Each structure stands twice: as C-alpha cells, then as structure tokens.
Amino acid sequence: MAVILSSTLLAWNYGEECQLEADRDESSLSRARLFGDTNGTLFIREGDKHLDVKIIRGIGIFLVETDLNSPPVFDHFLRKFEASHEITVLLHINRIPKYHVAPSNRLRSSATPIRGVYRVTLCLGYGDTISWVAFEQSLIDELEMLISKNTAATPPTDAETDCDLDPHQSQPLKSSSPRSPLSFQLPRSTSSGDIPLSIMSTIHTQADHHQHEQLAPPDLKAITQKPITYIICRDKLFIKEESNFVRRAILTVFVAVRNQQRTKLSQLEVPADRLVEIGFSRAV
C-alpha cells in the first residue's frame, strides 16, 4: 500500500511540474501582448500592430486560479475577441480551513492599473454554501464601495504611498519620483508609457489616483442592467508526441483526471446561459 501511495504521489507531482512548465512556455512564447496605456486603457500589441480593445456592455467575471499575475483565461479572451467588458472581475474562489466565514468577510476586492478591471477573492469555509444570486448582489455592493472609494480618494502623501508589488520580484516597485507619478520601474517595452498586463497587481499609488481621477468612474447602475457573464477556462491537456513510453504512462492518468475536473464556479450553481467557456489546449 505504501508503495502504491508513494508512486501515485510522485506521478502526480511530476504531472503538476510538467503543467507548470507548459504554463511558462505559453507565457514566454505568446505572440500577442496585452498592455494598458497611462490612462489604464487596454490594447493589444501584435508585432508592429496596435489593436484597440473594444468595450462590451455589462460585467464579465473571469474565474482565475490565483490572485497574482494575469490569468490565462482573461488573456485568451482578449486575444480571441479583442474586446473587454465595461467592468471585468478576476474572481478567485478560496476555500479556507475553517467551517464558516461570515458573509461580511467573504469578499476581498482591489483595483488594478487597468481601468475597469478589479480583483475579487471569495473566501468560503468548508461548510459554506452560497448561491449565485446572493454572490452577485454582494459583488455589486463591493464594487460600488470600491469605485466610490477610488473616486473620492485624494492623492496620498509620500509617507502614505503604497507600493506596486511585482509577483516575480522580492522587492516592491515604487514610483521613482513624486513629481513623476506615471514613471514606474516596469519591464522594458517599446513604449515607455505601456503597462504590461502581467504585473496587474493591487495598486493604491499616487499614479493610480492621478490616472483615474481624470476619467469618469463607471456607471455601475447602468452597467448592471445587463446580466453578468461568467467566463471560465476550459484548457485541455495533451501529452507531447515526442514523449517516451515511461513519461507517457506517468502522464496519462494525470492528464485524464485534469481534463475531467470541474471548475470551482460550479459551487455557485450559475445558470448555463450565463456561462462562456474559453477553450485552449496545452502540451505537457
């Protein structure tokens, strides 16, 4: 029994390592890059072309696996449709080792440098259940408070200025000068004013307030007139053709289980007519 359990654990860990490697390869070999300009407006750069991202009415909720970095489902949606919702929510459902989480403590939200894009974490205990109707109402209330706070906020002083945190670095990214609020220490790009989507982390800097106070806040009441759309990732794994017999045997079970897994969004029992699946395949 110990041999079987150890072999299963080793095979699963190997499969997860192969999947992480595939994720890194997909990110590094991506032909199109998503950027936001200094006003937080999205656009797509593919080669020498700059493609405008059209605006779709309503709220789009993207289910993500982590609350760091730009999630693959959002990237693929933008590249395929070249469009984004008026309000985009990157939702991370986090099951915590606790029986119950009070409804007032379930949602954590934050703004991003991209206009109209927000990160939301839904924390649930292992004994909690929540319907999509209750979730949507709580989400709208949370977004309303967040938008109102960002609109009414005044630029902080140097002592109060927080930092932009780059998940790939141990040190936070700070604005280089209080007189130049739009100058971030960002990865090099062809345009000095571009903000790569891959560093789209929580932001409460002076630059953020400077950018967004120049633009009118989204009209949440008008936006919510259209039903919320949920976009989920349906990635299909397959084994590389050049894999040898041993590697193929180890990964066969892992790939089969991964491809059959249900998304965490099923916990909300969202109606099928609200769901949009973005499918793509990855070789492991």
UniProtKB/TrEMBL annotation:
All copies of domain K+ potassium transporter C-terminal, residue ranges: 58-280
Region described as Disordered: 153-193
Signal peptide, first to last residue: none
Cellular component per GO, a single term: membrane
Listed Low complexity bias regions: 169-189
GO molecular function, one term: potassium ion transmembrane transporter activity
UniProt-recorded name of the protein: K+ potassium transporter C-terminal domain-containing protein
Lineage: Eukaryota, Fungi, Dikarya, Ascomycota, Pezizomycotina
